[in-house]
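Structure in, sequence out. Go:
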């Protein structure tokens, strides 16, 4: 996909934002600084090795965190044959600031 910024954009790190629990939403990059585009990921557990490597921009909140835990139980090898199994929607986004 395309970035709303027109191309790759710089990393933004803050010392209080850490990958310290499941449900963190962050930019995926190309394992190089400042290579963020339009892809993102959601953590399913603590991922402290990603601190200051991927830009965190949100978190999963409320009852949705239980649905996130259920995602971890999906058999992705079987689901790959049935793309409808992996259909998910983001219904609301809130700023961390």
């Amino acid at each position: 996909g395309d970035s709303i910024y027109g191309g790759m954009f710089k990393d933004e790190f803050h010392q209080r934002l850490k990958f310290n629990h499941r449900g963190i939403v962050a930019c995926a990059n190309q394992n190089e600084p400042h290579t963020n585009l339009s892809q993102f990921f959601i953590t399913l557990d603590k991922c402290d090795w990603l601190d200051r490597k991927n830009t965190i921009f949100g978190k999963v909140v409320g009852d949705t965190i239980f649905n996130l835990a259920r995602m971890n139980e999906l058999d992705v090898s079987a689901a790959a044959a049935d793309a409808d199994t992996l259909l998910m929607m983001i219904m609301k986004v809130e700023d961390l600031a």
